[in-house]
Amino acid sequence: MNALANRRFLKMNGLGNQITVLDLRGTKHVVSEAEARAIASEPRARFDQLMVLHDAVTPGTDAFVRIYNTDGSEAGACGNGTRCVAWAMVADPQMGDAAKTRLALQTKAGLLPAVREGETLFTVDMGVPRLAWDQIPLAEPFEDTSRFELQIGPIDSPVLHTPCAVNMGNPHAVFFVEDPYAYNLEQIGPLLENHPIFPDRANIELAAVKAPDHIVLRVWERGAGITQACGSGACAALVAAVRRELSARKATVSLPGGDLAIEWRESDAHVLMTGPVEFEWEGWIDPALIERAA
Ligand SMILES: N[C@H](CCC[C@H](N)C(=O)O)C(=O)O
Q1: Is 49's C-beta closer than 6 angstroms to any atom of ligand 1?
Q2: What is the 112 CA–ligand 1 centroid distance (Å)?
Q3: Could you point out which of 63, 75, 179, 260 has its C-alpha 20 to 30 Å from the C-alpha of 108?
């Protein structure tokens, strides 16, 4: 019997970013692309990101987490999903250990320490951002070598150019614009995500710096499309804004689903993301769904 059959899942969200948490600790099962897509097609388990917990592989960490997009592809990081996993591991009656307030979660991209700040409020240390493709850690002083010209359109929206490329464990291209809501993101998102200039595709951010401590952001996510919020995207937007000398190192990032507090810490160049999570319901994976995916 496939380890996924009848397995319990938690449907959650982080600022409207739809997250499903699945605990596969104690099994060796690795969710396939087809299985992830099948789970995404189930209305009660539907997700922007599926966060799958595996047994910890490194001493001192609490779990290894695999992250899947709606299209079944894997991502190295997911800020909103990491907060949801952290909540599940402290507060869920079956999975959680209420004595814990700190967790060390590991993903393909590295370690993501999380701290519980309140009932449903968590801070995740998203690590040191890197230049998107050459993987150089970004710590000051730096040269903004990630600038390049990218011209798309004309479609029915203003032309976008010169994104700032930031890797937060996953690739982001941040475009600074006056009004992110003036663009038809549904139409231009897929063109940009799959533009040949992005070897690994990219999450696409439209960001407006409203004040040194306030950024308005919309995101087209790689493998998932428009989401209500993207934690790593909010981090990438702040890092890009600091690199372009548009904002302070600490800002509120307002997404369609709500606000995240982001700080690019001066002392060690780590990015800290603070925001809420919401538990919606629990469910069990229909074995027929998994059979069909096989
Ligand atoms: N929603 C996530 C990001 C998912 C990124 C994923 N779409 C990728 O392929 O990199 C977040 O809160 O950080």
Answers
A1: yes
A2: 14
A3: 260
Q: Verify whether ligand 1 is closer than 6 Å to residue 20 (CB atom).
A: no
Give the CATH number of the domain where residue 248 resides: 3.10.310.10
Angle ∠(34,74,8) on CA atoms, nearest 5: 65
Contact 67, 107 (CB under 8 A): yes
Active site residues: 78, 230
Q: Is residue 52 part of a domain?
A: yes
65 C-alpha to ligand 1 centroid (Å): 13
Residue-wise pLDDT tens digits, 216-260: 999 999 999 999 999 999 999 999 999 889 999 999 999 999 999
User: What contacts 290, CB < 8 A, 6 or more positions away?
Assistant: 2, 4, 5, 35, 38
Task: Confirm whether 1 is domain-assigned.
Answer: no
* pLDDT tens, residue by residue, 100-142: 999 999 999 999 999 999 999 999 999 999 876 544 555 444 4
Query: Which of 34, 36, 39, 2 lies closest to 289, judged by CA?
Result: 39
Beta-carbon count within 10 A of 136 CB: 14
